[in-house]
Structure formats: structure tokens, C-alpha cells
Write a structure and sequence with these properties.
This protein is α+β, with helices and mostly antiparallel strands and about 150 residues long. The protein contains four helices and seven strands; from the N terminus they run H-E-E-H-E-H-E-E-H-E-E. The two termini are about 20 Å apart.
């Protein structure tokens, strides 16, 4: 869990980040801010592309920055998203899965709901997250692939 002051700081930083969004098609700017277990803060905004499938959300931008700067061992303690439209908006499904992949066990997700900003656990926002699958090897055998446990 994070303090109320840190929650407000992350919301403010996410709102700053949304101002940098590249959204010429949807006009729907999203900002995100996260804090790691080590206290590092990263922000991100959504970046659209004329080929919509190539767009990246603000949450994933912040997470990619975290990993590219701190490495794959970095873990999210809390992540916030905001919208310039200032409407209720939780992270999309793709962002929820990526948040789950890089979250500390007690990580929280903060977003605007009908009643204002709410805080939920990463597990609550994506119950049944993908954490393993069976891969087919070239020789026809199968191999169970599991998400690495947070250390």
C-alpha cells in the first residue's frame, strides 16, 4: 500500500504525462505514473499510430520505461492512470496483463471510477491473469511455461 501523499503525487504526475500524449486519431489522452518497490517513479502517456494496433497505452509506456531503465527485476508497487477527459477509466485488458506481469505481490492500481479515484490490487483488477501456458517444442513434446515468481 502507498501513502495518501504518494497517491496524490502519482495522480499529479500522471496528469502531467497525459499532456504529452500523441493522440491525433482518438483525441483521448491518457497519462500514467508508477512507483517501484525501490521508490523509483516512471511516467508514460499513450502514443497512437494510424494503424491502431500499433498504439501503446500510457500504462504500458511507463512499464516499458521502468524495465528499460531498471531491468526485468523491477516491480511495480503502485500505478495510476488518468485521462485528459477526466472520466472514469480503468486500464485496458492488455495493460492489466502487463501490470500483472511486473507487479509486486501487494501492488495496487489506482484509477478514476464513478465515485472518484479508487485503489484496487493488481489481482483484483485482473482475476485469472495469464500466468502459465503449455508450449509446443519442435520435437512435438510440450513444456509448461510459468511466470517467474516475484522475488
Amino acid at each position: 500500500m502507498i501513502s495518501k501523499d504518494m497517491r496524490e503525487k502519482l495522480i499529479s504526475l500522471a496528469k502531467e504525462a497525459q499532456e504529452k500524449a500523441y493522440v491525433p486519431y482518438s483525441k483521448f489522452a491518457v497519462g500514467a505514473a508508477l512507483i517501484t518497490e525501490d521508490g523509483d517513479i516512471f511516467t508514460g502517456c499513450n502514443v497512437e499510430n494510424v494503424s491502431y494496433g500499433l498504439a501503446i497505452c500510457g500504462e504500458r509506456t511507463a512499464i516499458v520505461k521502468m524495465i528499460s531503465e531498471k531491468g526485468p527485476q523491477a516491480r511495480i508497487q503502485a500505478i495510476v492512470n488518468t485521462t485528459k477527459a477526466d472520466i472514469p477509466c480503468s486500464p485496458c485488458g492488455a495493460c492489466r496483463q502487463v501490470i500483472q506481469e511486473f507487479s509486486a505481490p501487494d501492488a495496487v492500481v489506482i484509477y478514476k471510477a464513478e465515485e472518484g479515484y479508487v485503489t484496487v490490487t493488481a489481482a483484483q483488477i485482473l482475476p485469472g491473469a495469464f500466468s502459465e501456458f503449455v508450449a509446443l517444442e519442435e520435437d512435438g513434446s510440450t513444456k509448461l511455461i510459468r511466470k517467474k515468481k516475484n522475488e
